[in-house]
User: What shape does this take?
Amino acid sequence: MTTTTEEKPVEQHAFEADVSRLLHMMVHSIYSDKDVFLRELISNAADACEKLRYEAISNPDLAADGVRPRIVVRLNEEARTLIVEDNGIGMDRDEMIEALGTIARSGTRAFMERLEAAKGGENAQLIGQFGVGFYSAFMVADRVDVISRRAGQTAAWTWSSDGQGTYSIGEAEPSDAPARGTRVTLHLTDDAKTYTSKWTVERIIREQSGHVPVPIELIEKEGGEPTQVTDGAALWTKPKSDISKDDYADFYRSVSGQYDDPLLNVHFRAEGLHEYTALAFVPGSQPFDLFDVERNGRMKLYVRRVFITDDAELLPRYLRFVRGIVDTSDLPLNISREMIQDSPVLTAIRRGVTGRVLNALEKLPETDTVSFTKAWELFGPILKEGIYEDFERRAQLLKLARFRTTISDDNTRSLDDYIKDMKPGQTDIYYMSGASLEQLKASPQLEGFRARGIEVLLLTDAVDSFWTSNVGDYEGKGFKSVTQGLADLDAKADEDDTPDSATEVTPQLSSLIDYMKDTLKEQVADVRRSRRLTESAVCLVASDAGPDRQLEKILQSAGRVKTASKPVLEINADSPLVQAVAILTDPSAKEDAAWLLLDEALVLDGDRPANPRAFAQRLSRLFAKAYGV
Assistant: This one.
Protein backbone atom coordinates (compact mmCIF):
# COMPACT_ATOMS: atom_id res chain seq x y z
CA MET A 1 0.00 0.00 0.00
CA THR A 2 1.22 3.53 -0.82
CA THR A 3 0.13 6.73 0.94
CA THR A 4 1.04 10.23 -0.17
CA THR A 5 2.22 13.13 1.94
CA GLU A 6 2.56 16.68 0.67
CA GLU A 7 6.17 16.02 -0.26
CA LYS A 8 7.15 12.42 -0.97
CA PRO A 9 5.26 9.12 -1.42
CA VAL A 10 5.72 6.62 1.41
CA GLU A 11 5.38 2.88 0.86
CA GLN A 12 4.17 0.48 3.54
CA HIS A 13 5.66 -3.01 3.62
CA ALA A 14 5.22 -6.06 5.82
CA PHE A 15 8.35 -7.71 7.17
CA GLU A 16 9.13 -11.20 5.98
CA ALA A 17 7.78 -13.86 8.33
CA ASP A 18 11.24 -14.67 9.73
CA VAL A 19 11.92 -10.99 10.48
CA SER A 20 8.55 -10.57 12.21
CA ARG A 21 9.22 -13.57 14.39
CA LEU A 22 12.72 -12.31 15.17
CA LEU A 23 11.45 -8.83 16.08
CA HIS A 24 8.85 -10.30 18.38
CA MET A 25 11.58 -12.15 20.28
CA MET A 26 13.77 -9.03 20.39
CA VAL A 27 10.99 -6.89 21.81
CA HIS A 28 9.48 -9.36 24.26
CA SER A 29 12.46 -11.36 25.47
CA ILE A 30 14.47 -10.38 28.54
CA TYR A 31 18.21 -10.10 27.87
CA SER A 32 20.90 -10.04 30.48
CA ASP A 33 22.88 -7.42 28.55
CA LYS A 34 21.09 -5.06 26.17
CA ASP A 35 24.29 -3.07 25.59
CA VAL A 36 24.91 -5.38 22.64
CA PHE A 37 22.63 -3.25 20.41
CA LEU A 38 25.19 -0.42 20.29
CA ARG A 39 28.05 -2.72 19.40
CA GLU A 40 26.00 -4.16 16.54
CA LEU A 41 25.01 -0.77 15.11
CA ILE A 42 28.59 0.48 15.30
CA SER A 43 29.80 -2.72 13.65
CA ASN A 44 27.35 -2.20 10.78
CA ALA A 45 28.50 1.42 10.43
CA ALA A 46 32.16 0.36 10.34
CA ASP A 47 31.37 -2.23 7.66
CA ALA A 48 29.71 0.49 5.57
CA CYS A 49 32.84 2.66 5.81
CA GLU A 50 35.03 -0.29 4.84
CA LYS A 51 32.81 -1.05 1.85
CA LEU A 52 33.13 2.53 0.67
CA ARG A 53 36.91 2.33 0.85
CA TYR A 54 36.83 -0.85 -1.20
CA GLU A 55 34.41 0.42 -3.88
CA ALA A 56 36.33 3.70 -4.12
CA ILE A 57 39.36 1.76 -5.36
CA SER A 58 37.67 1.17 -8.72
CA ASN A 59 35.46 4.29 -8.55
CA PRO A 60 37.40 7.11 -6.85
CA ASP A 61 34.54 9.56 -7.38
CA LEU A 62 32.62 7.86 -4.57
CA ALA A 63 35.02 9.38 -2.02
CA ALA A 64 36.17 12.38 -4.02
CA ASP A 65 35.31 14.78 -1.17
CA GLY A 66 38.32 13.48 0.75
CA VAL A 67 36.35 13.26 4.01
CA ARG A 68 37.88 10.58 6.22
CA PRO A 69 35.67 7.70 7.38
CA ARG A 70 34.05 8.24 10.76
CA ILE A 71 31.19 7.12 12.96
CA VAL A 72 29.31 9.63 15.10
CA VAL A 73 27.08 8.70 18.03
CA ARG A 74 24.67 11.50 19.02
CA LEU A 75 22.73 11.63 22.29
CA ASN A 76 19.64 13.68 23.09
CA GLU A 77 18.37 13.19 26.61
CA GLU A 78 15.41 15.54 26.16
CA ALA A 79 14.16 13.83 23.00
CA ARG A 80 15.26 10.45 24.35
CA THR A 81 17.04 9.49 21.16
CA LEU A 82 20.33 7.85 20.29
CA ILE A 83 21.74 8.25 16.77
CA VAL A 84 24.48 6.25 15.08
CA GLU A 85 25.66 7.88 11.86
CA ASP A 86 28.39 6.90 9.41
CA ASN A 87 29.72 8.36 6.16
CA GLY A 88 30.17 4.98 4.51
CA ILE A 89 28.73 3.48 1.36
CA GLY A 90 25.08 4.11 2.23
CA MET A 91 22.00 2.38 0.75
CA ASP A 92 19.57 3.04 -2.07
CA ARG A 93 15.90 2.03 -1.89
CA ASP A 94 16.33 -1.58 -2.98
CA GLU A 95 19.35 -2.12 -0.76
CA MET A 96 17.44 -0.69 2.19
CA ILE A 97 14.55 -3.11 1.66
CA GLU A 98 16.97 -6.02 1.28
CA ALA A 99 19.07 -5.09 4.31
CA LEU A 100 16.33 -4.04 6.72
CA GLY A 101 13.21 -5.90 5.60
CA THR A 102 14.53 -9.38 4.95
CA ILE A 103 17.04 -11.85 6.33
CA ALA A 104 18.98 -13.16 3.38
CA ARG A 105 21.55 -15.02 5.40
CA SER A 106 21.13 -18.76 5.75
CA GLY A 107 20.63 -20.34 9.15
CA THR A 108 17.79 -18.06 10.28
CA ARG A 109 15.61 -20.91 11.48
CA ALA A 110 18.46 -22.35 13.53
CA PHE A 111 18.99 -18.90 15.03
CA MET A 112 15.33 -18.59 16.02
CA GLU A 113 15.35 -21.99 17.70
CA ARG A 114 18.55 -21.28 19.61
CA LEU A 115 17.43 -17.79 20.60
CA GLU A 116 14.14 -19.12 21.98
CA ALA A 117 16.00 -21.77 23.97
CA ALA A 118 18.88 -19.55 25.11
CA LYS A 119 19.18 -18.20 28.62
CA GLY A 120 21.14 -15.40 30.16
CA GLY A 121 24.27 -14.13 28.45
CA GLU A 122 24.04 -16.57 25.55
CA ASN A 123 21.41 -14.32 23.93
CA ALA A 124 23.93 -11.55 23.36
CA GLN A 125 26.31 -14.00 21.72
CA LEU A 126 23.65 -15.31 19.36
CA ILE A 127 22.59 -11.87 18.15
CA GLY A 128 26.02 -11.11 16.77
CA GLN A 129 26.77 -14.62 15.57
CA PHE A 130 23.78 -14.78 13.27
CA GLY A 131 24.32 -11.48 11.49
CA VAL A 132 21.00 -9.93 12.51
CA GLY A 133 22.43 -7.29 14.82
CA PHE A 134 20.42 -4.38 13.38
CA TYR A 135 17.22 -5.79 14.86
CA SER A 136 18.73 -5.72 18.35
CA ALA A 137 17.91 -1.98 18.27
CA PHE A 138 14.31 -2.93 19.05
CA MET A 139 15.39 -4.21 22.45
CA VAL A 140 15.78 -0.58 23.56
CA ALA A 141 13.69 1.42 21.06
CA ASP A 142 9.99 1.55 20.30
CA ARG A 143 10.73 3.10 16.90
CA VAL A 144 13.77 3.10 14.64
CA ASP A 145 14.25 5.58 11.79
CA VAL A 146 16.93 5.08 9.15
CA ILE A 147 17.89 7.63 6.53
CA SER A 148 20.57 6.81 3.97
CA ARG A 149 22.14 8.10 0.79
CA ARG A 150 24.27 5.81 -1.32
CA ALA A 151 27.66 7.23 -2.27
CA GLY A 152 27.56 8.69 -5.76
CA GLN A 153 23.76 9.14 -5.83
CA THR A 154 21.56 12.17 -5.35
CA ALA A 155 18.44 10.55 -3.93
CA ALA A 156 18.19 9.69 -0.25
CA TRP A 157 15.78 7.26 1.36
CA THR A 158 14.12 6.95 4.73
CA TRP A 159 12.99 3.77 6.49
CA SER A 160 10.94 3.61 9.68
CA SER A 161 9.40 0.90 11.85
CA ASP A 162 8.04 0.31 15.33
CA GLY A 163 9.03 -3.35 15.11
CA GLN A 164 5.42 -4.52 15.14
CA GLY A 165 5.37 -6.22 11.74
CA THR A 166 5.53 -3.45 9.16
CA TYR A 167 7.87 -0.73 8.00
CA SER A 168 7.60 2.33 5.77
CA ILE A 169 10.05 3.47 3.13
CA GLY A 170 10.10 6.57 1.00
CA GLU A 171 12.30 9.18 -0.60
CA ALA A 172 13.79 11.64 1.87
CA GLU A 173 14.35 15.34 1.57
CA PRO A 174 17.99 15.73 0.45
CA SER A 175 18.58 18.35 3.10
CA ASP A 176 17.58 15.88 5.84
CA ALA A 177 20.03 13.17 4.77
CA PRO A 178 23.77 12.81 5.22
CA ALA A 179 25.91 13.71 2.19
CA ARG A 180 26.54 9.97 1.99
CA GLY A 181 26.17 7.11 4.42
CA THR A 182 23.50 6.14 6.93
CA ARG A 183 21.92 7.66 10.03
CA VAL A 184 20.08 5.32 12.42
CA THR A 185 17.86 7.04 15.00
CA LEU A 186 16.62 5.07 17.99
CA HIS A 187 13.59 6.45 19.87
CA LEU A 188 14.37 4.87 23.21
CA THR A 189 11.84 3.23 25.50
CA ASP A 190 11.28 4.53 29.03
CA ASP A 191 13.47 1.84 30.58
CA ALA A 192 16.31 2.50 28.11
CA LYS A 193 16.78 6.24 28.68
CA THR A 194 20.11 5.52 30.41
CA TYR A 195 21.52 5.17 26.89
CA THR A 196 21.37 8.94 26.54
CA SER A 197 24.03 9.23 29.26
CA LYS A 198 27.45 10.16 27.90
CA TRP A 199 29.27 8.08 30.51
CA THR A 200 27.18 4.99 29.85
CA VAL A 201 27.52 5.18 26.08
CA GLU A 202 31.21 6.05 26.14
CA ARG A 203 31.92 3.09 28.42
CA ILE A 204 30.05 0.71 26.09
CA ILE A 205 31.89 2.02 23.04
CA ARG A 206 35.30 1.67 24.66
CA GLU A 207 34.55 -1.81 26.02
CA GLN A 208 32.81 -3.32 23.01
CA SER A 209 33.89 -1.32 19.95
CA GLY A 210 37.24 0.09 20.96
CA HIS A 211 39.09 -1.38 18.01
CA VAL A 212 36.82 -1.05 15.03
CA PRO A 213 38.97 0.31 12.16
CA VAL A 214 36.98 3.57 11.92
CA PRO A 215 37.23 6.51 14.37
CA ILE A 216 34.19 6.91 16.64
CA GLU A 217 33.05 10.32 17.92
CA LEU A 218 30.46 11.08 20.58
CA ILE A 219 28.23 14.19 20.72
CA GLU A 220 26.58 14.53 24.12
CA LYS A 221 23.80 16.98 23.24
CA GLU A 222 22.29 18.69 20.22
CA GLY A 223 24.74 21.26 18.87
CA GLY A 224 27.56 20.01 21.08
CA GLU A 225 31.14 19.48 20.05
CA PRO A 226 32.21 15.93 19.17
CA THR A 227 34.55 14.03 21.47
CA GLN A 228 36.71 11.34 19.92
CA VAL A 229 36.20 8.07 21.80
CA THR A 230 38.35 5.79 19.62
CA ASP A 231 40.95 6.63 17.00
CA GLY A 232 40.16 3.86 14.50
CA ALA A 233 43.76 2.61 14.53
CA ALA A 234 43.98 -0.97 13.33
CA LEU A 235 44.89 -3.12 16.31
CA TRP A 236 46.91 -5.54 14.22
CA THR A 237 49.34 -2.79 13.20
CA LYS A 238 50.36 -2.08 16.80
CA PRO A 239 53.28 -3.81 18.58
CA LYS A 240 52.09 -6.79 20.63
CA SER A 241 53.69 -5.23 23.70
CA ASP A 242 51.23 -2.33 23.43
CA ILE A 243 48.14 -4.54 23.27
CA SER A 244 46.47 -5.79 26.43
CA LYS A 245 44.47 -8.97 26.85
CA ASP A 246 41.31 -6.88 27.03
CA ASP A 247 42.25 -5.13 23.78
CA TYR A 248 42.58 -8.47 22.03
CA ALA A 249 39.26 -9.68 23.47
CA ASP A 250 37.49 -6.50 22.36
CA PHE A 251 38.86 -6.78 18.84
CA TYR A 252 37.96 -10.47 18.70
CA ARG A 253 34.34 -9.64 19.52
CA SER A 254 34.21 -6.95 16.87
CA VAL A 255 35.47 -9.24 14.07
CA SER A 256 33.70 -12.42 15.16
CA GLY A 257 30.29 -11.12 16.12
CA GLN A 258 30.54 -13.21 19.29
CA TYR A 259 30.34 -12.09 22.86
CA ASP A 260 32.66 -14.53 24.60
CA ASP A 261 36.38 -14.44 25.32
CA PRO A 262 38.82 -16.09 22.90
CA LEU A 263 40.69 -19.15 24.10
CA LEU A 264 43.77 -18.30 22.05
CA ASN A 265 45.05 -15.49 19.87
CA VAL A 266 47.78 -15.76 17.25
CA HIS A 267 49.29 -12.39 16.25
CA PHE A 268 52.34 -12.21 14.01
CA ARG A 269 53.95 -10.36 11.13
CA ALA A 270 55.53 -12.36 8.33
CA GLU A 271 58.43 -10.88 6.38
CA GLY A 272 60.48 -12.20 3.51
CA LEU A 273 59.12 -13.39 0.19
CA HIS A 274 55.64 -12.30 1.25
CA GLU A 275 54.81 -9.69 3.87
CA TYR A 276 51.58 -9.77 5.81
CA THR A 277 50.16 -9.42 9.29
CA ALA A 278 47.74 -11.94 10.75
CA LEU A 279 45.63 -11.80 13.89
CA ALA A 280 43.64 -14.98 14.47
CA PHE A 281 41.48 -16.13 17.38
CA VAL A 282 40.18 -19.47 18.59
CA PRO A 283 36.67 -18.68 19.93
CA GLY A 284 35.48 -19.54 23.39
CA SER A 285 32.20 -20.97 22.03
CA GLN A 286 31.06 -22.65 18.85
CA PRO A 287 30.05 -20.31 16.01
CA PHE A 288 26.50 -21.06 14.86
CA ASP A 289 27.59 -22.03 11.34
CA LEU A 290 30.32 -24.42 12.47
CA PHE A 291 28.64 -27.38 10.82
CA ASP A 292 27.35 -25.50 7.78
CA VAL A 293 27.48 -27.71 4.67
CA GLU A 294 29.46 -25.02 2.85
CA ARG A 295 32.09 -25.10 5.63
CA ASN A 296 33.43 -21.66 4.73
CA GLY A 297 35.89 -19.76 6.90
CA ARG A 298 35.29 -16.30 8.33
CA MET A 299 38.76 -14.71 8.20
CA LYS A 300 38.76 -11.18 6.78
CA LEU A 301 41.26 -10.15 4.09
CA TYR A 302 42.66 -6.62 4.04
CA VAL A 303 45.07 -5.12 1.54
CA ARG A 304 46.98 -2.21 3.06
CA ARG A 305 44.23 -1.85 5.70
CA VAL A 306 41.45 -1.75 3.08
CA PHE A 307 38.89 -4.47 3.68
CA ILE A 308 38.60 -6.71 0.60
CA THR A 309 36.52 -9.75 1.53
CA ASP A 310 35.70 -12.28 4.23
CA ASP A 311 35.36 -15.03 1.61
CA ALA A 312 39.00 -15.60 0.62
CA GLU A 313 39.46 -19.02 2.29
CA LEU A 314 42.52 -17.88 4.19
CA LEU A 315 42.47 -21.08 6.23
CA PRO A 316 41.58 -24.67 5.36
CA ARG A 317 38.03 -25.69 6.09
CA TYR A 318 38.97 -27.70 9.15
CA LEU A 319 40.03 -24.39 10.77
CA ARG A 320 36.78 -22.62 9.84
CA PHE A 321 36.06 -21.89 13.50
CA VAL A 322 39.02 -19.48 13.64
CA ARG A 323 38.15 -15.79 13.40
CA GLY A 324 40.41 -12.85 12.61
CA ILE A 325 42.10 -10.88 9.83
CA VAL A 326 45.01 -11.00 7.42
CA ASP A 327 46.43 -7.72 6.08
CA THR A 328 48.94 -7.80 3.22
CA SER A 329 50.59 -5.31 0.89
CA ASP A 330 51.51 -7.98 -1.67
CA LEU A 331 48.16 -7.87 -3.48
CA PRO A 332 46.67 -5.10 -5.66
CA LEU A 333 43.80 -3.21 -4.07
CA ASN A 334 41.54 -3.91 -7.01
CA ILE A 335 42.00 -7.69 -6.98
CA SER A 336 38.80 -9.56 -7.81
CA ARG A 337 37.45 -12.46 -5.79
CA GLU A 338 38.10 -14.80 -8.71
CA MET A 339 41.74 -13.69 -8.82
CA ILE A 340 42.02 -14.09 -5.06
CA GLN A 341 41.18 -17.78 -5.17
CA ASP A 342 43.89 -18.42 -7.79
CA SER A 343 46.52 -16.13 -6.31
CA PRO A 344 49.87 -17.77 -5.44
CA VAL A 345 50.35 -15.01 -2.85
CA LEU A 346 47.18 -16.08 -1.05
CA THR A 347 48.26 -19.71 -1.31
CA ALA A 348 51.52 -18.85 0.47
CA ILE A 349 49.70 -16.76 3.09
CA ARG A 350 47.22 -19.57 3.66
CA ARG A 351 50.04 -22.02 4.26
CA GLY A 352 51.80 -19.65 6.64
CA VAL A 353 48.74 -18.73 8.71
CA THR A 354 47.61 -22.35 8.92
CA GLY A 355 51.02 -23.41 10.20
CA ARG A 356 51.10 -20.66 12.84
CA VAL A 357 47.60 -21.48 14.12
CA LEU A 358 48.35 -25.20 14.38
CA ASN A 359 51.69 -24.54 16.07
CA ALA A 360 49.97 -22.31 18.63
CA LEU A 361 47.34 -24.98 19.30
CA GLU A 362 50.05 -27.61 19.66
CA LYS A 363 51.87 -25.51 22.27
CA LEU A 364 48.73 -24.49 24.18
CA PRO A 365 48.62 -27.59 26.47
CA GLU A 366 52.02 -26.59 27.83
CA THR A 367 50.90 -23.07 28.80
CA ASP A 368 47.14 -23.30 29.37
CA THR A 369 45.74 -26.79 29.80
CA VAL A 370 42.25 -25.54 30.63
CA SER A 371 41.97 -23.49 27.44
CA PHE A 372 43.31 -26.33 25.31
CA THR A 373 40.89 -28.81 26.83
CA LYS A 374 37.97 -26.52 26.12
CA ALA A 375 39.21 -25.80 22.59
CA TRP A 376 39.42 -29.52 21.85
CA GLU A 377 35.94 -30.15 23.29
CA LEU A 378 34.52 -27.41 21.08
CA PHE A 379 36.47 -27.95 17.87
CA GLY A 380 38.08 -31.40 18.06
CA PRO A 381 35.59 -32.97 15.60
CA ILE A 382 36.35 -30.19 13.11
CA LEU A 383 40.13 -30.49 13.47
CA LYS A 384 39.82 -34.23 12.83
CA GLU A 385 38.51 -33.40 9.37
CA GLY A 386 42.02 -32.19 8.66
CA ILE A 387 43.46 -35.60 9.55
CA TYR A 388 41.37 -36.98 6.72
CA GLU A 389 41.84 -34.10 4.26
CA ASP A 390 45.27 -32.56 4.85
CA PHE A 391 48.00 -35.09 4.10
CA GLU A 392 50.74 -32.48 4.52
CA ARG A 393 49.79 -31.70 8.13
CA ARG A 394 48.38 -35.07 9.09
CA ALA A 395 51.18 -35.96 11.51
CA GLN A 396 50.86 -32.60 13.27
CA LEU A 397 47.09 -32.93 13.58
CA LEU A 398 47.41 -36.47 14.93
CA LYS A 399 49.88 -35.21 17.54
CA LEU A 400 47.44 -32.45 18.45
CA ALA A 401 44.42 -34.78 18.71
CA ARG A 402 43.02 -36.00 22.02
CA PHE A 403 40.89 -39.09 22.61
CA ARG A 404 38.73 -40.82 25.17
CA THR A 405 39.99 -44.33 25.79
CA THR A 406 39.15 -47.41 27.82
CA ILE A 407 41.52 -46.24 30.57
CA SER A 408 41.08 -42.45 30.41
CA ASP A 409 37.93 -42.03 32.54
CA ASP A 410 36.86 -38.38 32.13
CA ASN A 411 40.17 -37.18 30.70
CA THR A 412 41.47 -37.32 27.15
CA ARG A 413 44.80 -38.74 26.02
CA SER A 414 47.13 -38.05 23.14
CA LEU A 415 48.48 -40.68 20.77
CA ASP A 416 51.90 -40.11 22.31
CA ASP A 417 50.39 -41.05 25.70
CA TYR A 418 48.87 -44.16 24.12
CA ILE A 419 52.12 -45.31 22.47
CA LYS A 420 54.10 -44.74 25.67
CA ASP A 421 51.76 -47.14 27.54
CA MET A 422 51.49 -49.84 24.85
CA LYS A 423 51.94 -53.45 25.88
CA PRO A 424 55.21 -55.21 24.99
CA GLY A 425 54.90 -56.63 21.50
CA GLN A 426 51.85 -54.51 20.65
CA THR A 427 52.25 -53.18 17.13
CA ASP A 428 48.94 -51.38 16.51
CA ILE A 429 46.84 -48.59 17.97
CA TYR A 430 43.43 -50.13 18.63
CA TYR A 431 40.24 -48.14 18.26
CA MET A 432 36.49 -48.58 18.24
CA SER A 433 34.07 -46.10 16.68
CA GLY A 434 30.38 -45.71 17.45
CA ALA A 435 27.50 -43.34 18.08
CA SER A 436 28.13 -42.61 21.77
CA LEU A 437 30.69 -43.11 24.51
CA GLU A 438 28.20 -45.06 26.63
CA GLN A 439 27.48 -47.48 23.81
CA LEU A 440 31.15 -48.04 23.13
CA LYS A 441 32.01 -48.66 26.77
CA ALA A 442 29.33 -51.38 26.90
CA SER A 443 30.49 -53.08 23.70
CA PRO A 444 31.34 -56.79 24.07
CA GLN A 445 34.16 -56.41 21.51
CA LEU A 446 36.17 -54.58 24.18
CA GLU A 447 36.03 -57.35 26.79
CA GLY A 448 39.13 -59.20 25.67
CA PHE A 449 41.13 -55.99 25.35
CA ARG A 450 40.16 -54.91 28.87
CA ALA A 451 41.06 -58.33 30.24
CA ARG A 452 44.49 -58.08 28.67
CA GLY A 453 45.00 -54.45 29.76
CA ILE A 454 45.19 -53.20 26.17
CA GLU A 455 44.04 -49.60 25.72
CA VAL A 456 41.46 -48.84 23.03
CA LEU A 457 40.55 -45.42 21.61
CA LEU A 458 36.82 -44.72 21.87
CA LEU A 459 35.80 -42.63 18.86
CA THR A 460 32.33 -41.06 18.68
CA ASP A 461 32.63 -38.42 15.92
CA ALA A 462 31.37 -39.35 12.46
CA VAL A 463 34.65 -38.28 10.87
CA ASP A 464 36.55 -40.81 13.00
CA SER A 465 35.40 -43.68 10.83
CA PHE A 466 36.89 -41.99 7.79
CA TRP A 467 40.28 -40.80 8.96
CA THR A 468 41.08 -44.05 10.77
CA SER A 469 40.58 -45.97 7.52
CA ASN A 470 42.64 -43.40 5.60
CA VAL A 471 45.65 -42.94 7.88
CA GLY A 472 48.42 -45.48 7.52
CA ASP A 473 50.18 -45.06 10.84
CA TYR A 474 51.37 -42.70 13.54
CA GLU A 475 54.98 -42.97 14.68
CA GLY A 476 55.18 -46.34 12.96
CA LYS A 477 52.09 -47.73 14.69
CA GLY A 478 49.11 -48.69 12.52
CA PHE A 479 45.46 -48.14 13.39
CA LYS A 480 43.27 -51.21 13.81
CA SER A 481 39.58 -51.48 14.61
CA VAL A 482 38.59 -53.92 17.35
CA THR A 483 35.45 -54.70 15.32
CA GLN A 484 37.41 -55.73 12.26
CA GLY A 485 39.02 -59.09 11.64
CA LEU A 486 40.89 -60.96 14.36
CA ALA A 487 42.34 -57.77 15.88
CA ASP A 488 45.57 -59.69 16.71
CA LEU A 489 44.14 -61.11 19.93
CA ASP A 490 43.63 -64.56 18.48
CA ALA A 491 47.05 -64.55 16.86
CA LYS A 492 48.82 -63.51 20.06
CA ALA A 493 46.62 -65.10 22.71
CA ASP A 494 49.08 -67.84 23.63
CA GLU A 495 51.96 -65.35 23.86
CA ASP A 496 50.21 -62.81 26.04
CA ASP A 497 50.29 -62.97 29.79
CA THR A 498 46.50 -62.66 29.74
CA PRO A 499 43.37 -64.67 30.42
CA ASP A 500 42.65 -67.31 27.81
CA SER A 501 39.69 -69.54 27.19
CA ALA A 502 39.47 -72.36 29.68
CA THR A 503 37.13 -74.34 27.45
CA GLU A 504 38.40 -76.78 24.92
CA VAL A 505 36.65 -77.04 21.58
CA THR A 506 34.39 -79.98 22.41
CA PRO A 507 32.62 -81.97 19.70
CA GLN A 508 29.35 -80.34 20.77
CA LEU A 509 30.82 -76.83 20.46
CA SER A 510 32.40 -77.63 17.10
CA SER A 511 29.09 -79.05 15.94
CA LEU A 512 27.25 -75.90 17.12
CA ILE A 513 29.62 -73.66 15.15
CA ASP A 514 29.07 -75.74 12.01
CA TYR A 515 25.31 -75.74 12.60
CA MET A 516 25.16 -71.96 13.07
CA LYS A 517 27.28 -71.39 9.96
CA ASP A 518 24.75 -73.33 7.92
CA THR A 519 21.63 -71.94 9.61
CA LEU A 520 22.73 -68.28 9.54
CA LYS A 521 24.62 -68.35 6.24
CA GLU A 522 22.28 -65.77 4.65
CA GLN A 523 23.00 -63.29 7.46
CA VAL A 524 26.65 -63.79 8.45
CA ALA A 525 29.87 -64.45 6.56
CA ASP A 526 31.23 -66.79 9.21
CA VAL A 527 30.71 -68.10 12.74
CA ARG A 528 33.81 -68.66 14.83
CA ARG A 529 35.05 -69.01 18.38
CA SER A 530 36.22 -65.76 19.93
CA ARG A 531 38.98 -64.89 22.35
CA ARG A 532 37.97 -61.23 22.49
CA LEU A 533 34.87 -62.11 24.55
CA THR A 534 35.15 -62.75 28.28
CA GLU A 535 31.60 -62.03 29.52
CA SER A 536 29.15 -61.71 26.65
CA ALA A 537 28.00 -64.76 24.71
CA VAL A 538 28.33 -63.29 21.23
CA CYS A 539 29.44 -60.28 19.22
CA LEU A 540 29.62 -59.16 15.61
CA VAL A 541 32.80 -58.07 13.87
CA ALA A 542 33.69 -57.16 10.32
CA SER A 543 35.40 -59.75 8.19
CA ASP A 544 39.16 -59.59 7.81
CA ALA A 545 38.92 -57.90 4.41
CA GLY A 546 35.74 -55.92 5.04
CA PRO A 547 35.31 -52.28 6.13
CA ASP A 548 34.99 -51.24 9.75
CA ARG A 549 31.45 -51.85 11.04
CA GLN A 550 30.75 -48.22 11.99
CA LEU A 551 32.11 -46.84 8.71
CA GLU A 552 29.89 -49.19 6.75
CA LYS A 553 26.84 -48.09 8.76
CA ILE A 554 27.59 -44.42 8.04
CA LEU A 555 28.08 -45.06 4.33
CA GLN A 556 24.88 -47.10 4.17
CA SER A 557 22.80 -44.43 5.93
CA ALA A 558 24.16 -41.84 3.49
CA GLY A 559 23.23 -43.99 0.51
CA ARG A 560 26.87 -44.59 -0.43
CA VAL A 561 26.54 -48.35 0.12
CA LYS A 562 23.39 -50.13 -1.02
CA THR A 563 23.96 -53.49 0.64
CA ALA A 564 26.00 -54.00 3.79
CA SER A 565 28.56 -56.79 3.80
CA LYS A 566 27.86 -59.79 6.00
CA PRO A 567 29.48 -59.60 9.44
CA VAL A 568 31.25 -62.37 11.30
CA LEU A 569 29.49 -63.80 14.36
CA GLU A 570 31.89 -64.67 17.18
CA ILE A 571 30.78 -66.87 20.07
CA ASN A 572 32.25 -67.16 23.56
CA ALA A 573 33.06 -70.81 24.30
CA ASP A 574 33.20 -70.03 28.04
CA SER A 575 29.66 -68.62 28.11
CA PRO A 576 27.20 -70.88 30.00
CA LEU A 577 24.55 -69.83 27.48
CA VAL A 578 26.63 -70.97 24.50
CA GLN A 579 27.47 -74.24 26.28
CA ALA A 580 23.79 -74.84 27.00
CA VAL A 581 22.85 -74.22 23.37
CA ALA A 582 25.63 -76.57 22.22
CA ILE A 583 24.00 -79.56 23.96
CA LEU A 584 20.43 -78.88 22.86
CA THR A 585 18.85 -81.89 21.17
CA ASP A 586 15.50 -80.35 20.21
CA PRO A 587 16.01 -79.23 16.56
CA SER A 588 13.44 -76.43 16.71
CA ALA A 589 14.81 -75.10 20.02
CA LYS A 590 18.35 -75.22 18.67
CA GLU A 591 17.34 -73.27 15.56
CA ASP A 592 15.51 -70.65 17.63
CA ALA A 593 18.54 -70.33 19.93
CA ALA A 594 20.91 -69.86 16.99
CA TRP A 595 18.81 -67.01 15.59
CA LEU A 596 18.37 -65.45 19.03
CA LEU A 597 22.15 -65.43 19.56
CA LEU A 598 22.50 -63.51 16.30
CA ASP A 599 19.77 -61.07 17.37
CA GLU A 600 21.52 -60.61 20.72
CA ALA A 601 24.73 -59.71 18.89
CA LEU A 602 22.83 -57.20 16.73
CA VAL A 603 21.30 -55.54 19.81
CA LEU A 604 24.70 -55.36 21.52
CA ASP A 605 26.00 -53.71 18.35
CA GLY A 606 23.37 -50.97 18.58
CA ASP A 607 21.08 -52.43 15.89
CA ARG A 608 17.60 -53.92 15.88
CA PRO A 609 16.91 -57.59 15.22
CA ALA A 610 16.65 -58.13 11.48
CA ASN A 611 13.08 -59.42 11.90
CA PRO A 612 11.52 -58.11 15.15
CA ARG A 613 8.38 -60.25 14.76
CA ALA A 614 10.35 -63.45 14.27
CA PHE A 615 12.57 -62.46 17.19
CA ALA A 616 9.53 -62.09 19.47
CA GLN A 617 8.07 -65.42 18.32
CA ARG A 618 11.33 -67.31 18.91
CA LEU A 619 11.73 -65.75 22.33
CA SER A 620 8.14 -66.69 23.25
CA ARG A 621 8.67 -70.30 22.17
CA LEU A 622 11.83 -70.67 24.25
CA PHE A 623 10.14 -69.08 27.29
CA ALA A 624 7.23 -71.45 26.88
CA LYS A 625 9.50 -74.50 26.80
CA ALA A 626 11.59 -73.22 29.71
CA TYR A 627 8.51 -72.76 31.93
CA GLY A 628 6.61 -75.78 30.63
CA VAL A 629 3.82 -73.71 29.15
